[in-house]
Amino acid sequence: MARSATGISAIASKEPILERLGTVAIVGVGLIGGSIGLALRARGLAERVVGIGRDQERLDEARRLGAIDEGTTDHSSGFASAQVAVICTPVDRIAEEVRFAAQCGPEGMLITDAGSTKRAIVEAVEADTRARTAFVGAHPIAGSERNGVSHARADLFVERVCALTPTGQTPADRLERCRAFWSALGCRVLEMSPDDHDHSLAFTSHLPHIVASALAATVPVESLNLAAGAYRDGTRVAGADSVLWSAIFLANRVPLGAAIEALESRLGRWKSAVVAGDDSALDQLWQEGRRSRQLFD
Amino acid sequence: MARSATGISAIASKEPILERLGTVAIVGVGLIGGSIGLALRARGLAERVVGIGRDQERLDEARRLGAIDEGTTDHSSGFASAQVAVICTPVDRIAEEVRFAAQCGPEGMLITDAGSTKRAIVEAVEADTRARTAFVGAHPIAGSERNGVSHARADLFVERVCALTPTGQTPADRLERCRAFWSALGCRVLEMSPDDHDHSLAFTSHLPHIVASALAATVPVESLNLAAGAYRDGTRVAGADSVLWSAIFLANRVPLGAAIEALESRLGRWKSAVVAGDDSALDQLWQEGRRSRQLFD
């Protein structure tokens, strides 16, 4: 599924080195954007980190917390001298921000993002000639059910996978710089197509979020005093932000619909085995889940 | 749902005090039975803790780990002088062990258990006159996806709920001693009917286990390198022991079948909203799960 690395990095058998950057612009300085800023500054990877957002107060908070050097609500001035722009907004606003960054930013700018879905974003960006030549889609698979820059951490990306989703239209130099950028933050970089990414993430992330939410809503509140670890862990991410997640679900409808259907089919088998009291079917279903889980560990 | 406490403990407005016990017998010295032994010994609650099991080697390990003072595979000698017997086997063997303890044990013995389901056990015990007058069903809601005495901990029960399920046939003195016993291990004791217990636990524990297993089996193994926190937490308990859990599912078929159906219905609403791209339905579904989860926190 994953494409091999670029020729250069494959020969070197390690990630390309990131040269110290001048200005990096981060659009959306929440948990992810804030953690990128903290990591860039903690690792001395950039001379200046500019936060771009819609709310000056939150940008001021990000500055106080050390996630950015300065913050602005004026996108064009924020992008003006940036060598790298990282778009960390909810997924439904990413493509638009990429196009705007490509318009306002200097020649040679690398634009990347941190969106949890990729196909719709990459398609929308590639419809724009200027944006297409600057952009490499990315998804650092790190996060939390908590939001906001106050939960940001400089080590959020250490040893986490970052999926890059280049296409036949992605310039090789931007791809190499993008690998170097995310590696420098601590990520293990993989490459795959936007479709493969979205299909996998429908199962590994979006479905678990829906399951957690459905489980939380199904357990009667009057029984919660008898809930313990299995409930607590199984519903943890149901506390996440609804705006972020609704946008993700909408951007990945087809793969996610298929993932829900696969789970429904499995639950149907469980229900039949439970209702029938079918000992060996229950045991087999359990063993299959257990083996899959052990592969993850 | 929960019945009020007994008269005595209600007047005192705290749990009855456990007098130091002579011998306590524990049948099944794994994670739960071993933790009971460790807690009894760490808190100086008994003069002697006897482990009863089928495998002398495992009993020897429990003794080395300090969970019991001695171990025997001979049930009748193990029960002979015990003031309290705690049955910690898989649920499908509990009623039989209770009946045997009642036969072999001294007059006045308290028998309790740690089974995750209660109705079938209580019904089977109450069909036996001698066992009925000695038994109080219990379920300390504590555990782990790990098994065996090597994972036992003296503090496993601290601040955890223990549900007692007395019936109209349960003698008041045994109920009071049983409250004192589980409280002395650190539990917060609640009382409820066996049916109420099984109905609640179908939702708060058994369903989350099935969901974790179904989710683990649904995610394609080739995508696991892109799985992160939501998958990890949502599938954690899928690694638990299949013998234990098959027995629990079988003993709670009707409530559990209803719980799976309730979840299926909720997932059906999710699938419709995803496939239709219905923004406001997605948002509403998410908010409902989020509110329930926040009540738990």
Percent in helix of chain A: 40-55%
> How many individual helices of chain A?
13
Major sheet description of chain A: 6 strands, parallel
Quaternary state of the chains = homodimer
Name the chain pair with the biggest interface and residue counts per chain: A-B, 88 and 87 residues
Shape of chain A: elongated
Query: What's the order of the H and E elements of chain A?
Result: HEHEHEHEHEHHEEEHEHHHHH
Which structural class fits the helix and strand makeup of chain A?
A: alpha/beta
Q: Determine the N-to-C terminus distance of chain A.
A: 21 Å
The total strand number of chain A stands at: 9
Low-confidence stretches of chain A: 1-13
How large, in whole angstroms, is the Cα Rg of chain A?
Answer: 21 Å
The spatial strand order of the largest sheet of chain A comes to 3-2-1-4-5-6
Mean pLDDT of chain A: 93
Residue share in β-strands of chain A: 5-15%
Account of the 3D structure:
The structure is a homodimer of 297-residue chains. Chain A is an alpha/beta fold and 297 residues long. The first copy, chain A, contains 13 helices and nine strands. Chain A has helices at 7-12, 31-42, 56-64, 75-79, 94-104, 119-126, 129-132, 172-184, 194-218, 229-235, 242-251, 253-276, 279-296, and strands at residues 21-27, 46-52, 70-72, 82-87, 110-113, 135-136, 138-140, 161-164, 188-191. In chain A, the strands form two sheets. In chain A, strands 3-2-1-4-5-6 form a six-stranded parallel beta sheet, sandwiched between helices. A three-stranded mixed beta sheet of chain A has the order 7-8-9, with helices on one face. In chain A, α9 crosses α12 and α12 (253-276) runs antiparallel to α13. Chain A is elongated, with a radius of gyration of 21 Å.
